[in-house]
Automatic annotation (TrEMBL):
One of its GO terms (molecular function) is acyltransferase activity. Gene3D superfamilies: 3.40.630.30. The keyword Acyltransferase applies. Transmembrane segments: none annotated. It comes from Paenibacillus wenxiniae. InterPro entries: Acyl_CoA_acyltransferase, GNAT_dom, YpeA/RimI_acetyltransf. Residues 8-157 form the N-acetyltransferase domain. This is GNAT family N-acetyltransferase. SUPFAM superfamilies: Acyl-CoA N-acyltransferases (Nat). Keywords: Acyltransferase, Transferase. Its EC number is 2.3.1.-.
Length: 291
């Protein structure tokens, strides 16, 4: 480690940023470039990195945010983009970065969490993180006969549609008061640009953006993005058709007239409590704000 330097907040350093993007692409096969060019890298995304010259060789990023838990706001960080160049592995770099993050935020937030893949499930408990099961919600559905709204698929390659999406992402209300995230526009835009770019729809009458996918009689509902209070049942009525039999929610829905079924699932969520607030049971972290 004697030739390595710790650095952070290098968004405006072209060489380090380019190296960071390359390491992310090589490690996770993800592309940060368009996300960055569209303004996705905001002040709430903070990389903690080791560099060798102009090369980023190890990283663990912090996303600062708030959790909405039963209507109350809790300060939290989500850790993501944990990666090390293969030529620099076995030197304890990820351990040093994790300790640096914990030291930086242990007195300023109530919860720290991350989503881990299967190859590192034994790593995070060493830092006090505990594996937490999530709850996936669904509802059996019978479609109504009358629908009034106009549903328009958004094209992120069109400047007007991208502007609309950015505006909604930046000014949205949390999707649920039972459990949701806030100040996560940066992560949401990454998903819109890279993951769900073919599944984004604007409901004109309701003035909401809905991210969903329908296959046969089943709808996967990923997010509802609105700047006003919404009723999920009303939105569901507009996106279903006569074939719809079930909707699965990839977030925690408020009830609002829906008869919800739930299934426990383990998606690699690890949580560390550093304040008095406990991470709630039987909730689903919004998929569009998983870093």
């Amino acid at each position: 480690m004697q030739n390595l330097k710790f650095t952070t907040k290098y968004k405006n350093n072209d060489k380090l940023r380019t190296s960071f993007f390359k390491l992310a692409a090589d490690t996770f096969d993800i592309n940060f470039e368009r996300w960055y060019r569209q303004g996705g890298w905001g002040e709430q995304y903070i990389p903690f990195s080791f560099v060798d010259g102009d090369q980023v060789v190890a990283n663990a990023s912090v996303n600062t945010l708030e959790l909405i838990i039963h209507g109350q706001r809790t300060k939290a960080i989500q850790i993501g983009t944990v990666m090390t160049d293969p030529n620099y592995r076995g030197k304890g770099l990820s351990t040093h970065l994790m300790n640096q993050i914990l030291q930086e935020y242990e007195h300023t937030v109530d919860l720290m969490y991350l989503f881990a893949n299967e190859s590192v499930l034994d790593f995070y408990p060493k830092f006090g993180f505990k594996n937490v099961e999530e709850c996936l919600f669904s509802t059996k559905y019978t479609s109504i006969s009358s629908k009034s709204t106009i549903i328009r698929k958004l094209d992120i390659n069109l400047a007007a549609d991208l502007h609309l999406l950015n505006n909604f992402a930046s000014n949205r209300l949390p999707v649920s008061q039972r459990f949701a995230t806030d100040h996560t526009a940066s992560v949401l835009m990454f998903y819109c640009l890279n993951v769900f770019n073919e599944n984004i729809y604007y409901l004109e009458d309701q003035n909401v953006i809905v991210i969903y996918q329908q296959k046969d009689d089943h709808i996967e509902l990923f997010d509802i993005i609105s700047t006003n209070e919404i009723n999920i049942k009303d939105i569901s009525d507009q996106i279903t058709d006569e074939y719809t039999k079930q909707i699965t929610f990839h977030f925690t829905p408020d009830g609002q007239g829906l008869e919800l079924n739930s299934t426990m699932t383990n998606e690699g969520l690890f949580v560390k409590t550093v304040g008095d607030t406990l991470y709630p049971a039987h909730v689903k972290h919004p998929i569009t704000s998983i870093a």
